């Protein structure tokens, strides 16, 4: 299911009468007065511009607070708690399926009142029906540090995954992705991840017994206590403690199996998983420790030296998934061997691993249509060189892994990086700005971005000045002092030092000229400049001769 456009009649006090197009193939226009919807096909549309596996890429840019993340929330069906009951919010999505049929899905919008131009009745659906078996996927990777309180839902024709943090299931693809990123120089450090459990997961009466025990010992105790409580088994605390002091947890599992024959398959799978986990931790553990809250954590490393053993890491995921499925069959909801999962890398490395791991997961769990990959601040935490290379890497990687799968991706993301905009087709970058008169945010399309000079993109669309505000204030202060009629005694030397701090040569030299004129000095004179150069006397004479010749030629041309 391709997202063609988002049409907003009103959303809170942020948007009013706005159309956001996310397709290069079609353009949606809507008259908010007459409720007339028009969908035109782009005659200049270039199919497979990003390869056969990518339908389109749509960055959303703008300063903080103008509503970029709000647009992603609407696309990703995430409802902020404070907005869920606001009747003033009216908007609808325009989708396109693989058969060329358009679907309109609205929020508080009377879709029956819309008049659609140029399309036959059977080309548009507004009644809400969609075959559940044919649902496409939508992955919304949200910045967990800025996630507002809310919920997500109302997506009967899309299989929506709201991603707030790393889950266990992503381990199935992350190791292969890490190897690819490492081989291409996009990550350099070892991939380190940790898992652990809260001390609150273990009854207080056992805490003293566990203080000197290793991570795995404590983990097994937590699992057994939780199973005993869940299935209301007859194991006493004393019996559990006695066997654990002796290091004999297998006997406890045997007793559990005797009491719950119908759960034998689950218990056997659990024991097998724990045995493998114990071996895995012993082989790949970097360290284990307690955090400031007293939670027990073990850190695992996956680096170049482990590439040949990737299957062992992936087996950990597969066995865990199998175990969770069996627990679900027993209505044992919320069962987890590992309570928490952490990633121990830089923010930039983590984010690129996150995005690519979900791409890999989608490729392993494909649908037949288009998957929308929606990402908040795609390049967050990345070095500028990474952000410059990111679109090219994404395009190549997605097309490489999807040669056989036949899946299609549509990428929509917010960004502050001018480097990525230079890789985007004209007319596909959405710029959101605040209208100072109305107070509403408005979207406009940036037409000329592809292969454009990055400095021009920054100056025209992203920043108001090429200098930082602090530097600009300093420059203006220098100019005011140099233009002032009164001389400020005692400050000449300090002012001269500040002028020499300026790196831009044209500006620095102009200020030196002004300084010479005001204080009757020769800071900008030829002799003064020659003194700063590492030249011998013969070289200085040659430079003087060249300058004098240029001056003579310039005078002759007047």
UniProtKB/TrEMBL annotation:
Keywords: ATP-binding, Nucleotide-binding. The keyword Zinc-finger does not apply. One of its GO terms (molecular function) is ATP binding. InterPro entries: ATPase_AAA_core, P-loop_NTPase. Pfam families: AAA_21. The keyword ATP-binding applies. Residues 373-421 form the ATPase AAA-type core domain. It comes from the Bacteria. Gene3D superfamilies: P-loop containing nucleotide triphosphate hydrolases (3.40.50.300). SUPFAM superfamilies: P-loop containing nucleoside triphosphate hydrolases (SSF52540). This is ATP-binding protein. It comes from Streptococcus cristatus.
């Amino acid at each position: 299911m391709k997202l063609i456009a988002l049409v907003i009649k009103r959303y809170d006090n942020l948007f009013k009468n706005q159309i956001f197009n996310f397709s290069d193939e079609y353009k949606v226009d809507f008259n908010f007065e007459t409720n007339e919807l028009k969908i035109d096909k782009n005659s200049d549309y270039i199919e497979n511009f990003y390869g056969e596996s990518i339908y389109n890429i749509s960055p959303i840019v703008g300063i903080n607070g103008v509503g970029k993340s709000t647009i992603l929330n609407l696309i990703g069906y995430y409802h902020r708690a404070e907005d869920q009951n606001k009747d003033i919010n009216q908007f609808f999505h325009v989708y396109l399926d693989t058969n060329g049929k358009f679907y309109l899905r609205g929020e508080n919008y009377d879709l029956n009142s819309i008049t659609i131009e140029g399309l036959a009745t059977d080309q548009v659906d507004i009644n809400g029906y969609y075959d559940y078996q044919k649902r496409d996927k939508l992955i919304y990777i949200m910045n967990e540090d800025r996630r507002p309180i809310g919920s997500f839902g109302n997506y009967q024709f899309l299989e929506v995954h709201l991603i707030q943090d790393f889950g266990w299931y992503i381990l199935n693809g992350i190791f292969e992705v890490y190897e690819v990123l490492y081989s291409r120089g996009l990550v350099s450090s070892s991939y380190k991840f940790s898992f652990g459990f809260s001390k609150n997961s273990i009854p207080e009466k056992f805490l003293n017994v566990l203080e000197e025990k290793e991570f795995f010992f404590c983990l097994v105790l937590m699992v057994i206590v939780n199973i005993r409580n869940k299935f209301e088994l007859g194991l006493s605390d004393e019996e559990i403690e006695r066997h654990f002091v002796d290091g004999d947890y297998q006997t406890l599992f045997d007793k559990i199996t005797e009491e719950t024959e119908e759960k034998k398959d689950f218990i056997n799978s659990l024991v097998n998983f724990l045995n493998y986990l114990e071996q895995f931790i012993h082989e790949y553990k970097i360290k284990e420790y307690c955090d400031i809250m007293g939670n027990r954590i073990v850190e695992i490393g996956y680096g170049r030296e482990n590439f040949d053993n990737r299957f062992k890491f992936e087996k950990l995921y597969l066995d865990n998934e199998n175990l969770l499925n069996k627990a679900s069959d027993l209505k044992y909801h919320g069962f987890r061997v590992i309570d928490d999962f952490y990633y121990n890398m830089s923010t930039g490395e983590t984010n690129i691993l996150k995005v690519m791991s979900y791409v890999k997961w989608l490729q392993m769990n494909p649908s037949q249509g288009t998957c929308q990959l929606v990402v908040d601040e795609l390049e967050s935490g990345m070095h500028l060189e990474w952000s410059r290379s990111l679109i090219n890497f994404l395009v190549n990687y997605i097309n490489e892994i999807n040669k056989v799968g036949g899946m299609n991706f549509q990428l929509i993301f917010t960004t502050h990086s001018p480097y990525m905009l230079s890789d985007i087709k004209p007319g596909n970058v959405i710029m959101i700005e605040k209208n100072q008169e109305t107070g509403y945010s408005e979207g406009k399309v940036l037409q000329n971005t592809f292969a454009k000079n990055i400095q021009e993109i920054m100056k025209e669309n992203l920043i108001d000045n090429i200098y930082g505000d602090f530097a600009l204030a300093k420059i203006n202060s220098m100019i005011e002092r140099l233009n002032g009629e009164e001389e400020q005694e005692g400050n000449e030397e300090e002012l001269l030092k500040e002028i020499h701090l300026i790196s831009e040569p044209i500006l620095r030299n102009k200020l030196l000229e002004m300084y010479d004129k005001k204080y009757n000095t020769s800071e900008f004179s030829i002799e003064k400049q020659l003194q700063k150069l590492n030249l011998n006397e013969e070289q200085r004479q040659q430079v003087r001769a060249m300058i004098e010749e240029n001056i003579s030629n310039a005078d002759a041309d007047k």
